[in-house]
Amino acid sequence: TQSVSGDFSNERNTLGMQGTGAIEMLAREMTAELLAIREDALRIARETGRSTRMALVTKDVDFGFIGANADGTLVTREIVGVNSDLIVRPFHQKGAVISLREFTNNAMNHHHGIQSVERFGQARTNTKDFDQDGVEDELTVGDVTATTIYQAGLNVPGQVLPSDPAALRAVIRGERTFETVGCADC
Questions:
Q1: Residue 8 pLDDT > 60
Q2: pLDDT tens digits for range 81-126
C-alpha cells in the first residue's frame, strides 16, 4: 500500500528511542515559540481593540493560524497538527505525551506491568499494591529518572556514507529520489 492510513496499516507509527532527548528539546522549543505567537496575537488584539489572526509557524512547520479578540478570547479553529493549547507532544501513538519522563512512566506500566511511585503513589501512604502482584513501590522516582536520562542520552541516528564511489552515488541518487517524491517533507 502507498498509504499510512489506519485502514491499510498500523497508524501508531511508534518512534525509535534513538535521539529522543533531542526530539523532546525540539518540541519544547517549538511549544515556546507557538505560545509566544499566541501571546503576541493577544497583545496586539488588546492594544488595537481589534481581532487579529497570526500564522503559527515554528522551525519551518506550519500549524495553521490562531486568532485573538480584543476581549482576550482565542479563535483556535484554524490550528492544525497540534492541540489548541499549542503544546507539541512528540511521544506515544498520536503525539499524546510531552516528555520522556511521562513516556517512561506510561510505558513501564503499560508494556512492562511495572507501576512507578510517581504515577501511582507510594504503597505505604496508600496501603495498596496497585497490580496486586505482591510487590509495592515497583519503580522509584530515581528509577524513572535514570531510565529517562538513559533515553535522553541516546544518540541521534546518523548516516555512514560508503567509501566505494559506486555505492556512494547510489546513496546520493536514493536521497534525491526520496526528496523528489515528497518523502523528506515531514
A1: no
A2: 999 999 999 887 777 888 999 989 888 888 888 888 888 877 665 5
d(CA 181, CA 103): 33
SS3 category, 116:
strand
Residue 32 CB contacts under 8 Å (≥ 6 apart), including other chains: none
Alpha carbon separation from 134 to 118, 119, 120, 126, 137 (Å, rounded) = 19, 18, 15, 15, 10
Q: Which residue has the cell 503513589?
A: 121
Give the closest residue to 16 by CA, choosing from 155, 165, 161. 155
> Which residue blocks in 49-140 are alpha helix, DSSP H?
100-112, 117-120, 123-126
**Interhelix angle for 20-48 vs 100-112, to 10°?**
130
Q: Distance of CA 35 to CAs 24, 32, 50, 51, 116, Å?
A: 16, 5, 20, 18, 31
- Which of these, 31, 94, 85, 86, lies nearest to 59 by C-alpha position? 31
